[in-house]
């Protein structure tokens, strides 16, 4: 029994069907690898792979139900002002489609499907694994993501082709480390160097970031300082693995997403898009807070006195 699916589809979804949705809401889908790897032994909730056939079916379901796949930036623009200059071309039901880690299978398995349906998407790259020659994904401290370690990544020529076709690229650090474990100068380098590399290679501004691993919102001082750092580095948006959908008031540097993988059948996909999976975000935050309290990590990652969190970042964490 998969309890998150059962609760979302059977219990919460029917209630959401009756509830009136107030205001604009942007679902941001989160994918990793589009490949037939069954990830044996990994519970459905934690899987990072989506079979290409399943992915094509999910995208077709979106198309058939009036959704249009857009980049994160396009989705945020729609969320903030649907009356902007591109309003006439704005899709009625945009859904932002994002991919983390820059795997080659995005080029071979995901992009052809997106292109056929007229969808766009945002890919977040860890620039240390992108080369003119093919490199493999070898994240620093890789023990927590064994399923995707060693997978081939995109090359710069493939990225140029994808960018020319409307795919947006964001930064996902250089070495894909667990940022809270690093000293601040190294965190700053990861955040700024990945952006600079992408901007040089793409010849365009890069304003979106994807936090590697879980964003530790429960560690207030660390989180405030990181958001401040992202803002000063020139990032305007950042996505996390927190579960939920984005509203106009959601802090732009800690955006929630809806995780999708091979286990997402049409019923669960529909429930997630409708908001019937958002409760998982609260359960997720509560579980993280309990782990944090249990491990006694209060103040475990000290913020340098010279870089105290700015009030705006602190306020964002309280929303
Ligand atoms: Zn990642």
In short:
It contains ten helices and ten strands. With 319 residues, it is an alpha/beta fold.
End-to-end Cα distance, whole Å, is 34 Å
CATH class: Alpha Beta
What structural category characterises the helix and strand content?
alpha/beta
Radius of gyration: 19 Å
Descriptive account of the structure:
With 319 residues, the protein is an alpha/beta fold. It has one domain (22-318): Alpha-Beta Barrel (TIM Barrel), CATH 3.20.20.370. The chain has helices spanning 3-18, 52-64, 72-80, 105-117, 156-164, 184-202, 220-233, 266-274, 279-295, 311-318; strands at 28-31, 33-34, 49-50, 67-70, 93-100, 122-125, 168-171, 208-210, 237-243, 255-259. Strands 1, 4, 5, 6, 7, 8, 9 and 10 form an eight-stranded parallel sheet that branches. A two-stranded parallel sheet has the order 2-3. Helix 1 (3-18) packs across helix 8, helix 2 packs parallel to helix 4 and helix 6 (184-202) packs parallel to helix 7.
Please render the helix and strand layout as text.
Layout: H1 3-18, E1 28-31, E2 33-34, E3 49-50, H2 52-64, E4 67-70, H3 72-80, E5 93-100, H4 105-117, E6 122-125, H5 156-164, E7 168-171, H6 184-202, E8 208-210, H7 220-233, E9 237-243, E10 255-259, H8 266-274, H9 279-295, H10 311-318
Parallel strand pairs: 1-5, 1-10, 2-3, 4-5, 5-6, 6-7, 8-9, 9-10
The protein binds zinc ion.
Residues 100-101, 172, 176, 212 line the site of zinc ion.
């Amino acid at each position: 029994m998969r309890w998150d699916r059962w609760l979302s589809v059977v219990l919460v979804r029917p209630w959401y069907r009756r509830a009136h949705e107030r205001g604009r809401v942007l679902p941001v889908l989160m994918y990793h690898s589009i490949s037939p790897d069954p990830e044996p032994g990994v519970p459905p909730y934690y899987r990072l792979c989506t079979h290409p056939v399943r992915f094509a079916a999910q995208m077709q379901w979106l198309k058939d139900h009036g959704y249009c796949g857009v980049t994160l930036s396009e989705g945020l623009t729609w969320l903030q002002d649907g009356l902007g200059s591109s309003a006439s071309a704005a899709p009625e039901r945009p859904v932002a489609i994002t991919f983390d880690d820059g795997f080659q299978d995005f080029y071979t398995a995901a992009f052809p499907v997106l292109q056929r349906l007229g969808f766009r998407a945002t890919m977040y790259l860890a620039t240390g694994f992108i080369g003119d020659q093919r490199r493999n994904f070898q994240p620093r401290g890789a023990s927590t993501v064994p399923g995707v370690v060693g997978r081939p990544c995109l090359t710069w020529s493939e990225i140029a082709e994808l960018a020319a076709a409307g795919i947006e690229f964001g930064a996902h650090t250089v070495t894909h480390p667990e940022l809270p474990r690093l000293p601040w100068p190294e965190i700053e380098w990861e955040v700024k160097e990945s952006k600079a590399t992408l901007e040089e290679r793409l010849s365009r501004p890069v304003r979106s970031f994807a936090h590697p691993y879980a964003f530790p919102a429960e560690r207030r001082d660390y989180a405030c300082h990181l958001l401040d750092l992202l803002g000063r580095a020139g990032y305007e948006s950042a996505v996390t693995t927190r579960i939920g959908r984005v509203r106009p008031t959601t802090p732009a540097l800690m955006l929630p997403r809806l995780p999708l993988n091979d286990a997402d059948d049409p019923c669960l996909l529909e429930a997630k898009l409708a908001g019937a999976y958002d409760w998982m975000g609260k359960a997720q935050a509560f579980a993280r807070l309990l782990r944090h309290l249990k491990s006694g990590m209060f103040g475990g990652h000290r913020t340098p006195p010279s870089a105290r969190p700015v009030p705006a970042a602190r306020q964002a964490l309280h929303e």
